[in-house]
Amino acid sequence: MDELNKRIIEVMTMLGLNKSTFAKDLDVSLPLITHITSGRNKPGLDIIQKIILRFENISPDWLLNGKGETYRTLPEKTEYSAIYSSLTKIQTELTEQENVVSTIKSYHKILIDEIKHLEEMREILDASTLKLKGIYPQLENIKTQLESK
User: Fold this and answer.
1) Going by C-beta distance under 8 Å and a sequence separation of 6 or more, which residues neighbour residue 128?
2) Are 28 and 49 spatial neighbours (Cβ–Cβ below 8 Å)?
3) Check: CATH 3.30.2350.10 for 3-65?
4) Is the pTM of this model over 0.70?
5) In contact, 34 and 8? CB cutoff 8 Å
6) Taking CA 7 as the corner, what is the angle to CA 6 and CA 8, rounded to the nearest 5 degrees?
7) What's the gap between Cα 16 and its chain centre?
8) Of 31, 57, 34, 44, whose CA–CA distance to 4 is shortest?
9) Mind listing the pLDDT tens digit for each residue in 27-69?
10) CB 118 within 8 A of CB 126
11) How many other C-beta atoms lie within 10 A of the C-beta of residue 51?
């Protein structure tokens, strides 16, 4: 039996997998795994790739060449929960501030509309005041006529 076939059997053993489970994990047929583990067939590149991709902790150098450690040291995964939490907090603050700005803009528009309305009212008031000023002399005229009679 080829050494590569033996290392594949060793991978199954280390992971505690039987042929059927190993085949399912790699998304290949059970007969293919049986042929490899019996030594009838050598594993193809596609099987080796699937093993390396599915079981990331298995060292590709060890699997292919039998050299080095069986397990590779995977880079430590960066913990992003604190950063995610900070980003979520900032997003919440941004949303709150956007709501405040939107509310202020709405009030500002209302106030601008009220100012325009007051300006219109002032124009009407000014026009009415002018009319009243024109009516007072007429009233004085009528008063004078009534007093003279």
Assistant:
1) none
2) no
3) no
4) no
5) no
6) 90
7) 39
8) 44
9) 999 999 999 999 999 999 999 999 999 998 999 999 999 999 9
10) no
11) 20
Residues in the chain, how many? 149
d(CA 6, CA 4): 5
Secondary structure string (H, E, C) spanning 36-50: HHHCCCCCCHHHHHH
Give the three-class secondary structure for 71.
Answer: strand
Joined tokens for residue 137: 């002399």
Expressed in angstroms, the distance from the first to the final Cα of the chain is: 143
Identity of the residue numbered 39: G
Question: Which tokens is 57 given?
Answer: 């902790």
Q: Are 95 and 87 in contact (CB under 8 A)?
A: no
Angle value at C-alpha 82, between 76 and 86, nearest 5 degrees: 145
